[in-house]
Amino acid sequence: MAQRPRRVARDKSTGVPKKYLSGIQGSRRKQLADTIKEISRLYRAGKRIPQSLINRRIRLGQKK
To answer: Into how many domains does the chain fold?
Structure first.
């Protein structure tokens, strides 16, 4: 019988995979999760992703 792939561990409060939020805490974590969700929504809709959103995701994701 074929093995089922293991599900990705997700952040409880946002539903975004924990992998993308590691090292960030507090309000910045929520902001990053919201930005990732917005980029994902635009990508799935086939729309253009503004550079400002990409820059925000990079800035929020940087470990200080």
So the answer is: 1
pLDDT at 37: 97
Is the pLDDT at 64 greater than 90? The verdict is: no
**Under 8 Å CB-to-CB from 11, ≥6 apart: which residues?**
17, 18, 21, 29, 33
* pTM confidence score: 0.86
Asked if 39 contacts 54 with a C-beta cutoff of 8 angstroms, the reply is yes
In a domain, 3, yes or no: no
List, for residues 3-40, the tens digit of each pLDDT value.
Answer: 999 999 999 999 999 999 999 999 999 999 999 999 99
Give the torsion sign (CA, 58, 38, 19, 15). positive
In a domain, 33, yes or no: yes
